[in-house]
Amino acid sequence: MASSCESSAGMASSPCGNSNFDSGLEIKTRSVEQTLIPLVSQITTLINHKDKPKKSERTLAAIHRVGQAVSVAVGRFVAVGEAIAAENQELKDEMGQACFEARRAGDVIAQLTDVGSALPSQLDGRVTVFSDRTAMVKAARLLLSSVTKVLVLADRIVIKQIITSRNKVLVTLDHLERVSTFQEFVQIFSQFGNEMVEFAHLTGDRQNDLKDEKKKARMAAARAVLEKCTMMLLTASKTCLRHPDCESARINKDAVFHRMRCALEQVIEIVTEARSCGENRILPASIYNGIKEFKSGVECLRENLYSLSPQSMSSQLEALVERTEDFTDSAYTSHEQRQAILGLCQLARQDTQQLVHAWVEAQSVHAKEATKDMEVAILKTSQSVSDLRRELHKVAVGRASDLLKVHGEQLPLRALKAAGAEGNLEEVAEYSRTLTEQKEQLVETCRLLCHVSGTEPLEITCIHAEETFHVIGPQIISAAQTLALHPSSKIAKENLEVFCEAWESQLCDMALLLREINDVFEGRRGQLKSLHWLSKHLANMKTAKAVKLDAEEQTSMAKLGLELRLLSSDVDTEVEKWEDQEHEIVRQSQSLATKCRYKTVSSVLKDIPPSLCVYLSLFQLVDEEKTVVMTEMEKLLALCQQLQMGAKTPVQGKAATFQKVTILHLSVFLSLFLLVSALFIRKKRKPITYFCLKSVRFGGR
I need a labelling partner for 638 at 20 to 30 A (CA). Which of 274, 353, 476, 623 fits? Predict the structure, then answer.
């Protein structure tokens, strides 16, 4: 590797930028990436200073602190890695080698930044460091590579835990499918429930940790299937046990078991990146992506007239127009909508032909850049395909909205329940046909929404919705048939109710999906949604039992230790850059963080309201923003009062006391963070949000 400053800095930033590393390891999870970011930052600082060998005492002391901090943090991190290696024989050799290299690189960096080893200059008395540039670059590369390898190896343990959990679920699922008595079923289902809770916990953490948004969306879809199918499995199995000779009950139960096994397999394929027929199924080509690629190719002609051939552009457009047949061939598309789509397709063809004509003329005179006629044709072609996309979006979203309004009344479901309870098989058959027609409309609408969704994660969500309607529709019908055959059966009635609730739940999910697609189309998708999601799910968090740390938890604690050590100097450096008002805001924010870190629970809850009032008075807010802030303040004050009452509740035992204090601190601090982050996102003041995030890390953890 070259020893220049530029190449060194580039090396230092690579783990978080490209996610590929010189060791051949790929970073696939956010936890690994976030652990490396502060380390990369500190090493980059050290490397960037090497081109200025003469340092002032202040600068030298700062470099020495950074070097020692890196060494100490890596040492502690490696100690945990070695403990994990001792508990997992299959990783012992690889982990041991990576830990050895990381410790050695940390020691080298500490030596290179040691004040005692620096030499004073004979000219001005200043100390010279980094006389051996190559050694620092080599140590930095080795440290980043080895720490990354330790993290990736530790991540394998998480994957192993998920696989082991899945295997336990599958074994119990097989037992459940073969039970013949209620007593046996109740015992095994209780075990199954516990195993599913463990599996849901592991896969939920994994889903949040994944960097790839497509994999995250697929994981979310599979977990949603498992969550909904668990209740379906309970009632379908009970119905089959109560009515063992009923064919519709058996069909209903078999469909649930089959869907659960498929979802379990999909989760494992995602975490292990297995290449089975299901995992690597190519997403259907969406019109949105086709238009995006086509416009990109058209606009590239401005830079390079020979980037592609005229024939390939025409073929690309024809393939795009062919996909619009999903809209125009649909029996549910109105005549006016069909004509509008066909007219825009024809206009796009004409504009593309004009572009090709101008393009060929430009090539014939050996033009090096787009001519005036080409520029006009490029603009017209881009506009025509954009208009086509807008029309398709309007048709898909309009149809989905209309269907949700119609199906919101749930008339076929109510009729099926009533007919089944009366034992009327003829009416069940009649309303089953109505439900089947609605199912086909919803399935087709989900397919159209997939074309205009705008992002790959939303495409995956559309496909999941399509599959869900396709599967649940027949399951509702089989459950209704079972009830009609046994109208006095409470279990059969409960089973039908569960499947109808799943249908209604999917309609609600579709409404949310529709809003997301609209937000993407109109460019409204932002960070505040993520904050809302975070606050919603934090409210449902349950306290974990105090247990001995396993390998995964040890890894997590090691990551936190590494982050805390390396982030401390970043905050001080960042604060120096801010303006006077911002500096005061930072001081108040840091004061709040310190209170949550070092004071008792009662003191924290008592001091937060007045401190926050002073803190918020520093902001220059308009009336609308004041209203928003005061609303959030009222929520926070109410929370503080609730927590004050909780703080007075006596607990016994060291572990229980520790958990109580930790949860109280974290609850208040996360509320503060949500309030401040929401405000700064509105004001678009990123540096302060950055600081608040660091404060939450120090305070909360």
Answer: 623
Burial class of residue 446 (count of CB atoms within 10 Å of its CB; 0-12, 13-18, 19+):
buried
* Token reading at 206: 């994994």
* 126, amino acid identity: R
Classify 21 in phi/psi space as left (phi over 0), alpha (psi -120 to 50) or beta.
Answer: beta
Q: Provide the b/e sequence for 655-688 (b: ≥16 CB within 10 Å).
A: eeeebbeebbbbbbbbbbbbbbbbbbbeeeeeeb
Q: Which two tokens stand for residue 604?
A: 């924290």
Pairing assessment for the beta strands 127-128 and 119-120 based on DSSP bridges: antiparallel
Q: Which of 144-158, 377-391, 530-544 has the highest mean pLDDT?
A: 377-391
Tokens of 4: 């220049």
Closest CA to 212 of 279, 259, 138: 279
Tokens of 167: 């295997």
- Identify whether the C-beta of residue 102 lies closer than 8 Å to the C-beta of residue 139: no
- Torsion, Cα of 305, 310, 315, 320 (10° steps): 50
- DSSP track, 233-250: HHHHHHHHHHSTT-HHHH
Distance CA 29, CA 208 (A): 9
pTM for the complete prediction? 0.66
Average pLDDT over residues 167-195: 93
* Radius of gyration of the chain, Cα coordinates, nearest whole angstrom: 31
**Which residues are CB-contacts of 658 (< 8 A; sequence separation ≥ 6)?**
546
Identity at 371, one-letter amino acid code: T
Side-chain half-sphere exposure of 132, counting CA atoms within 13 A? 12
